[in-house]
Amino acid sequence: MTTTRRAALTGSAAALASLTAGLPGLARAQSKQVVVGTWGGDYGELLRQNIDQPLVVPQGIEVLQDIAVADPRKTKLLAERQARRGTYDIACLSDTDMHMVAAQNVFEPLEMGKLKRGSAILPALAKPYAVPHIYSALVLLYNPSKVTTPPTGFADMWDPKYRGRVGFSDILYSTNTFSAAMAGGGSFSDYEPAKKKLMEMRSLDARIYPSNEALAGALKSEEVWLTPMWLARGFMWQKAGIPVKHVVPKEGAYAIVFEAAIPKNSRNKDNAYTYLDAMLQPSAQAAFADRMGYLPTVKDAPLPAAIAQQISLSEAEQERLRAPDYDYLLKSHSEILDFWNKQFKA
Amino acid sequence: MGSLVLEALSKRYGSSTAVERVDLEVTQGEMVALLGPSGCGKTTTLRMVAGFIPPTAGRVIIGGQDVTHTPPYARDTGMVFQSYALFPHMSVAQNVAFGLEMRKVGRAERDARVMEALRLVRLDHLADRLPRQLSGGQQQRVALARALVVNPAVFLLDEPLSNLDAKLRGEVRMEIRALQQRLGLTTLIVTHDQEEALTMADRLVVMERGRVRQVGTAEELYEHPADPFVAGFVGRCNLIPGRLEAADAFRAESGALLHCDSGAAPGPAPTGAALLALRPERIGLAPDPAGRARITAVTYLGAQTEYHVEQDGTALLVARPTAPLGDPLRRLAVGDAVVLSWDAAAARLLPAE
Amino acid sequence: MAALVLPAGLLVVMLLVAPMALLARISLNRFSPTELMVEATTAENYWRAVQDPYYQQVLGTTLGVALGCTVLALALGFPAAYWLARMESRWKSLATILVLFPLLVGNVVRSAGWMALLGNEGAINAALMGAGITGGPLPLLYNGGAVVVGIVAVVLPYMILTLAAVIEGIPRQAEEAAANLGGRPMTVFRRVVLPLALPGVVAGSVLVFILCMNAYATPVLLGGPQFKMMAPAVYDQFVRGNNWPFGAALAFILLAVTLVLTVVGSTLLGRRYRAA
Ligand SMILES: Nc1ncnc2c1ncn2[C@@H]1O[C@H](COP(=O)(O)OP(=O)(O)OP(=O)(O)O)[C@@H](O)[C@H]1O
Ligand SMILES: [Mg+2]
Prior knowledge:
The complex is a heterotrimer.
Chain A: E1 2-6, H1 11-20, E2 33-38, H2 41-56, E3 62-67, H3 70-79, E4 90-94, H4 95-102, E5 131-142, E6 167-169, H5 173-183, H6 193-203, E7 207-209, H7 212-220, E8 226-230, H8 231-239, E9 245-247, E10 253-261, H9 269-279, H10 282-292, E11 295-296, H11 305-311, H12 315-319, E12 321-322, H13 326-344
Chain B: E1 4-13, E2 16-26, E3 31-35, H1 42-50, E4 57-62, E5 65-66, E6 77-80, H2 92-102, H3 107-120, H4 136-148, E7 154-158, H5 166-183, E8 187-191, H6 194-200, E9 203-208, E10 211-216, H7 218-223, H8 228-233, E11 238-246, E12 249-252, E13 257-259, E14 273-278, E15 284-287, E16 293-300, E17 304-311, E18 314-321, E19 337-341, E20 348-351
Parallel strand pairs in B: 3-8, 3-9, 6-7, 7-8
Antiparallel strand pairs in B: 1-2, 1-4, 4-5, 9-10, 11-12, 11-14, 12-13, 14-20, 15-19, 16-17, 16-19, 17-18
Helix pairs in contact in B: 2-3, 2-4, 3-4
Chain C: H1 2-27, E1 30-32, E2 36-38, H2 44-51, H3 53-85, H4 89-100, H5 107-118, H6 123-130, H7 144-168, H8 172-180, H9 185-213, H10 217-223, H11 230-240, H12 244-275
Antiparallel strand pairs in C: 1-2
Bound molecules: adenosine-5'-triphosphate and magnesium ion.
The site of magnesium ion has 2 residues of chain B, from helix 1.
């Protein structure tokens, strides 16, 4: 059986969570169960259809999805890090978030012996504290009928021709800042040039949307022609009839990996390993590629040719991709956020 | 100041009628009481005069002017509410001054008139109190002063005494009447207490189920009730069903033959089923072993003693001033035989309902 | 008796005081990007928040929106409350439920409704463009106006019900007496109804002001990314920035400002009432 619980979390509730997490007697039934902290929407639904139902439930394990966007779940993981019993058995987060939380000693180092599918993982994506689930690349999306000369890099967003036509998703503030840094001659470990470029972008009337969905709406109505985005999103939007094409920027970009990890205070660690194994099954991986356009993270998940052609990256494109500098991001995160909020958005 | 005329005034709520074609004229300086059982339409009539309820039909004329469609604030009526309706956030003086302020009376004159009005109701020493710091009777007098100070064309009172205890009620009743007469106010007062109506008003209007039954002075209503309802409502009355057999003989349904004077009242005597109306205090009573009437109950009320008597199957109430000690009347007890007597002119014939 | 009261009292303390105390403690800590929070006893978070023109502006916006919404809610709520309070009793419970009805829907869902109405492809713009009145979509969403409209719609039921409860206690006959003495409707309102309803005006305004100062979902969803009020800023610090000490300091500043203004405002209004 799969049930969905919704977690609403506010600042003070986060503080309270650390109080209540340690309370005895509130524990859920201890039968075979695994609590998965995840996004809702497509991602949660695909987990349910391709992992929970076909792969985990038949093993007699009940899957509970605890649904929220990433930020409150991150906060909850941090708030509970000293508690004996945590909320989650599996935490799903992006690689940058995962690294940030892992730096606070929240996660169990993975025991490869318990992970049967461990050997199938692409070596480039392997981490000691998390399993890669799916991944995609940061690209520049553009509307081919409006942007008639195909752009080649992030810097093209600053072309005055596109005044008022560049859109950003507010929740991707870190990625957006990265694109500005690269356009301004910065690097994976130096976002400083982003400041000047973002202020330039501000005077070019950039538009900011509260969510990826709102941005998709703006792309669809052709209010916006250019935006930095995950390739997988671009693929989904294209399927939904939104007029976009993509380019892997020549300045270089990073891959985003959606990962899963086991908190140290998980109460069902064995079930959690079973769940991680299921996430790495080829059938599950193929389903995410087909529906959401994310690339498999295991060597043995074949993609149908039609999909592979749309979402795979050429050798040349892969050359331009690198992993983010997690430690730099960890240190600069609040500065990036502050600049985004106080200067760029003000 | 002016007269008040109601013309065929009616109020219907859906299919039910609260007031039905009321015609009434209150002359300058006259005090008229609306009297009737609960729910007969007294308050509704009064509120139509004040303008709070729009009439369904008919007209309200104050001082010769048709005000039927005039809003309450432009009507120049002064109303005293049953609950007093003082403004709780204003002092006694501010309450009384309110109407003068609305009439844009200058400050100096206003203060003088407020104090004069408060002196009139003997409350000038409490001018700065808030209403909640006053007794019920004092609040009542503030309400009076507040309504009087503006010299309204028509003075309206809705059961102004019902929240006072019996003793205070008697006093305030006299005060209101004295003020009304002194100031020459055209006044309409609502009450369901007939003693109140009888003592205060120049004329009474008896209402029943929205209609006016009879209008007249206390004496007219008492001595010459137009119908059995009025006879029964104003004072007490023995109402004996039967029919007139001769000009001076009334045959009760029970068979008893009672004497009367069918010519005493104006107009033709009713033929067919009728009622004989006989006031209890107009019946004489004497102990007589041969008498045809029997005492069924005796009630001693101090100044009066009431006897319930049965004669030939007809029950009658007799009220006599309590006789001095030693008088044979004092010894009358249940079962004793008595003789009843009355003046033929006191027995009025009324049409049966 | 004490045996009965004590556990309940402790629970209340647990639920109300403990999180606040915890928050107060956190606000004195120091933030570190790598370790998140370092134990300390410093007022630097408060100092930084007070000095930062950005947060001064956010607080200013919050105050402006809260005051504006309170005044609007009062202006719109008073006639509605009066009407409700003076309604015949058989309809009153139905009308009360109707007033309460919007509260059955959470702020997030309600804001989604506003978005569907005000968005570029929302009902209003679709209608305007469909009728050829406007060429392109009007920017109805993602601005202060949308937030004010959204918040007023949320707080209006609180204002109406608070006012209606007080207005119901004003004897109708006091109004009739005022009219009878020559008071026109506006004068009756100003001289009798309003002064007697003032306790309700104070209570309703305080309640609504506090709700507005702490509004979260509506400014986030209807204000868009560039519109910032205090509660979302606090949330941002906790959840996005992981800067708990600074977030806690911001939360306490919001609390203090709300408290001071509430006390000052209700005292001033209350004094007026006693003077009247
Ligand atoms: N708003 C209303 N809707 C329907 N019927 C009403 C309304 N107001 C009064 N009535 C009815 O009209 C009739 C007259 O009412 P009114 O208040 O005038 O009586 P009243 O003579 O003043 O009685 P009481 O001595 O009890 O005060 C009553 O039967 C009452 O039920
Ligand atoms: Mg009445």
